[in-house]
Amino acid sequence: MSSSVLSTTAPFRAAARQKYFPLAIRAYSGVAASRLHPSHSKQVTPVAYAYVSKRSISSTQQNRTEEYFPSPETPGVKEVQAWAHPVYTVEQMRNVAVAHRDARNWSDKVALGTMRVFRWGMDFVTGYKHPRPEAKHPERFNLTPKQWMNRFIFLESVAGVPGMVGGMLRHLHSLRRMKRDNGWIETLLEEAFNERMHLLTFLKMAEPGWLMRLMVLGAQGVFFNGFFLSYLISPRICHRFVGYLEEEAVITYSRVIKDMENGQLPEWDNLEAPDIAVRYWKMPEGNRKMKDLILYIRADEAKHREVNHTLGNLDQKGDPNPYMTEYKDPTKDHPTEGIENLRATGWERDEIFFKPQEQK
Ligand SMILES: [Fe+2]
Ligand SMILES: [Fe+2]
């Protein structure tokens, strides 16, 4: 077999060499040029290009990499457009902070407790330990770029599920009950799309091995069905659960940013964000490094945190989606699609839909 063909046994051999056996990932060359190998139906990256890779994640022979998302080659097609991402400023992203919304009633407690069990499971399978403040050797908790990338890929593959399930169920509800949805579907589907863009971006920098793919498959099967049933029973608890989950995502990405600023991830100091990310977030020139990318992604997670806590505060059947609403009083602060009015713990219902006599 030619050395440039993706071997079916390569992932097994690569995984066996890893410290984290079940989480082996393989390198993506980062080179757009690819060709269709005559003896293989998949597009593979030529050997000559693989060695000029600037990607630092590598756990497999460089010449056994696969082009995940080759540039569109349909005649006449320049770009495939999808949801446009709102523009974030550097200052807005820097202002994103870790936050927690206290559980105020039994349903909040159910959501928080479930999220903590969920987080424990995620940490366990991705080999992640968060350092306690009193830890004597916090450096032992440091993750390598490869371990971080494993965690990102696994988490983002799961994070894209809730928005799609919520949007799908509300869509079906609208169809069968012949009622309007009042704009919730769009925001939920866009959230799922945004999470998938996080995943696709990371997949441009690291390619998961067979066991990681298996874990993603299993996690999706369990989580999709669990969330589907839960959303049928209580959409409010589900939005609160996602709000709490997004609080954890902000914590995780904040830790990555801190580690990078402390010089603990020197491999990423000069790593460029992939083109897919530059185009999606409209990253300005001079702000297209790995750290900038993580700042964008953290800001997205903070937005999901706000959106889901806010949706969890609303009447699930009657209230319009405050993120798709044109307000009578534009001078008053309202929820927006961007992060200019970001509320870390969400908007209260009374703040959004105030009564006419309160307009003073
Ligand atoms: Fe995400
Ligand atoms: Fe998120």
From TrEMBL:
Output one GO MF annotation: alternative oxidase activity
Q: What is its main location?
A: mitochondrion
Needed co-factor(s):
Fe cation
The molecule here is called Alternative oxidase
Question: Which GO biological process annotations does it have?
Answer: alternative respiration
Q: How is the cofactor bound?
A: Binds 2 iron ions per subunit.
Q: Which residues cross the membrane?
A: 210-233
State a GO cellular component annotated for this protein.
respiratory chain complex
